[in-house]
Amino acid sequence: MDISFLLVILQGFLLPLLKAQPGFLNLDCGGTIAYADDIGLRWIPDSNYLFGKRTNTSLTSNNETQYKTVRYFPADDRKYCYNLNVTTGLRYLVRATFLHGNFDRNSVYPKFNLSLGATYWDTITITDVTTPVTTEMVVLAQSPFLSVCLLASSSVRFISTIELRQFIGSMYYSEFERQYLMFMVARINFGALSNASVRYPDDPFDRIWESDSSRSANYQLVDVSPGTQKVATTKPVYVSWDEEPPMKVMQTAVVGNNGTLSYTIYLANNNFQRHASAYLYFAEIEDLNPNETRQFGARFPWGPTHLEVPVNVMENAGGKYRLYEPVFFDISLPLLTPLKFRQTNDSSRGPILNAFEIFKYNLINFGSLDSTAMDSLVSIYPQKEWAQEGGDPCSPIPWTWVQCNSDSQPRIISLKLSGKNLTGNIPQQLTNISGLVEL
Ligand SMILES: *[C@@H]1O[C@H](CO)[C@@H](O)[C@H](O)[C@H]1NC(C)=O
Ligand SMILES: *[C@@H]1O[C@H](CO)[C@@H](O)[C@H](O)[C@H]1NC(C)=O
Ligand SMILES: *[C@@H]1O[C@H](CO)[C@@H](O)[C@H](O)[C@H]1NC(C)=O
Ligand SMILES: *[C@@H]1O[C@H](CO)[C@@H](O)[C@H](O)[C@H]1NC(C)=O
Ligand SMILES: *[C@@H]1O[C@H](CO)[C@@H](O)[C@H](O)[C@H]1NC(C)=O
Ligand SMILES: *[C@@H]1O[C@H](CO)[C@@H](O)[C@H](O)[C@H]1NC(C)=O
Ligand SMILES: *[C@@H]1O[C@H](CO)[C@@H](O)[C@H](O)[C@H]1NC(C)=O
Ligand SMILES: *[C@@H]1O[C@H](CO)[C@@H](O)[C@H](O)[C@H]1NC(C)=O
Ligand SMILES: *[C@@H]1O[C@H](CO)[C@@H](O)[C@H](O)[C@H]1NC(C)=O
Ligand SMILES: *[C@@H]1O[C@H](CO)[C@@H](O)[C@H](O)[C@H]1NC(C)=O
Asked: Residues of the signal sequence (predicted)?
């Protein structure tokens, strides 16, 4: 056979594989095979991971392969971390999911904390066996890997998936990103045509935009103003700037046909009076007559309550079918967060809203001052289990063979290297751990 012909065939097979999702990682914890799912995401098993055990869930109703297995860990005092390679200086969405699926046939459901490196992420509380618990953050990679850690617990711990999505350009840039991780509280697609979420491939970054008519575990939309109607278009909406929301999300909206559009967002599991940020997404998607206008005042709980921020979507976006995205950083959100939009007297149309995102800020814990030296030390022993514990050597829980002092950025005071089969000279890296008093 002609070799170029063969190449053509090969390309035919390889191209769909190579045209992968750049910057995506889908780790099927406890899985054994690589596969593509119904929406085209390619999953890989965590079979190189050294800790915990794989097992099958006993799901019958859920077809998603990634939920048919879990990796689980005993109840103990240590942490279990997955290290994920990233590119320093880029922003990532990090998502972890937990679907119990009755994997241990135990009616006492797990509860444990999760950290990203040394920084607290979320508390995972399992309350039933069939609903996946999902938690997500947007982070700036400040080192070449991120580590997702399941922290010590008196209950069995488990994990179903870990997903990474790399953002491009300045998406989700904030001046606080070196001090805070952005914990995703709500991402709402208003005017959604069904209960289904919008995600990949409609969102090339695979954010999950929840339908405003479905029930969310993290928030509830209450006190919806009368006269609120869904509107939708099939015309393209220009979305390629700022946070680049998916077109499908921007093609639907809610409109306050009686002059006001208001919601109260009940942040059920996120009772916080602290730093947060809010992203509002608007686009004019109705065909207004040339003599018609849509102008409204927006009242936010984080602003002075008497102040209305004027919004004219078409003017702000530079035309119809174009994104206008005001963002509010470093705001405080009450448990009941009201959003109120009121049509101005000279406007012929009521307020419109296409989508909304809220993040709260988790203060970054930079962990041990010796972490760079320790990362460099353990990288010499890629085959050794003790060198693969991952995460920060001291925080929030130290590695099993490391002792740290109690400084806010702890220093290592002792290493138990006996029985670790270290041969030859004392590794150079140890000379950089200045507080070390014992080997
Ligand atoms: C999990 O399920 C797979 C396929 O259904 C099966 O081959 C495997 O033996 C099961 N593993 C365990 C630990 O039950
Ligand atoms: C599960 O798979 C069956 C057959 O493979 C299919 O008919 C059904 O729609 C799937 N259900 C879900 C929720 O994907
Ligand atoms: C992550 O990066 C390290 C160091 O560059 C490399 O040895 C390792 O193979 C990478 N892991 C994966 C899963 O790509
Ligand atoms: C999670 O962390 C918080 C704060 O450090 C702590 O109060 C809580 O007891 C932890 N929960 C579990 C289940 O470990
Ligand atoms: C959509 O979700 C709501 C709230 O959970 C539920 O009441 C409704 O039945 C769902 N509709 C469909 C079509 O599934
Ligand atoms: C909207 O306003 C009109 C007239 O002001 C009123 O008749 C109608 O009942 C209102 N609709 C709703 C849903 O409040
Ligand atoms: C706009 O113009 C149309 C006819 O072109 C007219 O029917 C309508 O009442 C006008 N609307 C307003 C708000 O003036
Ligand atoms: C708009 O109309 C309301 C009620 O008719 C009136 O109280 C208010 O002063 C008007 N606002 C402006 C800016 O004209
Ligand atoms: C150390 O080496 C011995 C012999 O090669 C081996 O049996 C033992 O498992 C090793 N221990 C560790 C912690 O790697
Ligand atoms: C020790 O730290 C210094 C300065 O931080 C660095 O230049 C050097 O490469 C480190 N040595 C080792 C062996 O890690």
From this structure: 1-20
